[in-house]
Amino acid sequence: MAPVTADPHEFFQTQNAAPGAAVEPSEADIAQGFAAGSNPSPLPKVFQPLTIRGVTAKNRIWVSPMCMYSSQDGFATDFHLAHYSQFAMHGAGLVMVEASGVLPEGRISPNCLGIWADEHVPGLRRVVRHMHQYGAVAGIQIAHSGRKGSTIPLRLYGTRPGFKEDAEHGGWPDNVYGPSAIAYDDGHHTPAEMTAEQIGAVTRAFADAARRADAAGFDVVELHAAHGYLLHEFLSPLSNRRTDKYGGSFENRTRLVREVAAAVRRVWPREKPLFARVSSTDWVEGGWTAADTVALARLLAADGVDLVDCSTGGNDPRQAIAPAPGYQVPFAARVRAEVPEVLTAAVGILTPATLVRDTVEEGRADAVFIGRGFLRNPSLTLTIARELGVNVAWSNQYKYSRTKTN
Ligand SMILES: Cc1cc2nc3c(=O)[nH]c(=O)nc-3n(C[C@H](O)[C@H](O)[C@H](O)COP(=O)(O)O)c2cc1C
Question: What whole-number distance in Å separates Cα of residue 251 and Cα of residue 215?
């Protein structure tokens, strides 16, 4: 049967409200029970749009990148379409697609998503197109796992000793590399110290990945420089003992991430934002510190990074962390206060809704990323809106269940 319209995607694009965008409810909506009442004035900032370069997020509650270990050879599948779409359909302002390997050996596990080949673009484009239909900003985190590569996917944790993946199961134990030949711990492969040629190839791979992200239609690219993966490994003196221009001083340890940022910025369109996720501290004496993060944020801003996404840890098993609601927010707040030329996002146990609101309202971050909360409840944006008494649009398909329970 011929479709009713030439392009049904176009049809639904025009039909859908932008779920998650604050709207003043009509009297009819209030009377019919589809809205609780008028919005608070002023509107909580977390539900105010944020424009970065040429891209506007309709709210500041964003889905944090989360590896789903659901790919073969790096390809996006129907899982990724359904998974990322659900957040867009339910109002997330920005959805950051999980860490995607810029090289095959830059994946964490054999089941990680990839963006090292042009063949990956069509599958990603399909995910982006659907998220765009619901007005979500589509981001992708581009990543290299470094010495934490060739490990088992999350679902296999605890089923084998350690985390090493072998060649028989799709791993690349002979091609794990990092700044220095120091393993994360006994459960991970010992990396080979990277040559200057390999460092150059990685930088080019990040730029090529950004070019593919643009071809797939993404609005935002985030560099993964956190959690003990390659770029973080170069930053931290705990994992980087090099004696060449990529190791030693702060300037040398930050060289790779700056070269990557600059290379990406050269190919990534001017109107599109570039983010960088950093681990703001190693939580280990003698490691990367919050003061280092401030200094790096200043340099990255000069290289064209628009937002620093402030996570922590992941580079040393000795890390002493006491996770609690909002425990990483002070790092975002410090960067925001000391480096006004860059925006910041906060992440990590951002609950309850009032903490989400206050983090942005009180200027500790420009936006928040939420991870596990969205896995528990893909409608989290709508839930937070309700809890804060803010009326937001719902997608047309779902809006009649908004407040009525009978
Ligand atoms: C299953 C899972 C996968 C994750 N994968 C990534 C990833 O690909 N990139 C990243 O930067 N952080 C990753 N993280 C960390 C989250 O993005 C987030 O920073 C962390 O879960 C803390 O936020 P939350 O308390 O809101 O979950 C992952 C977390 C989880 C639970």
Answer: 33
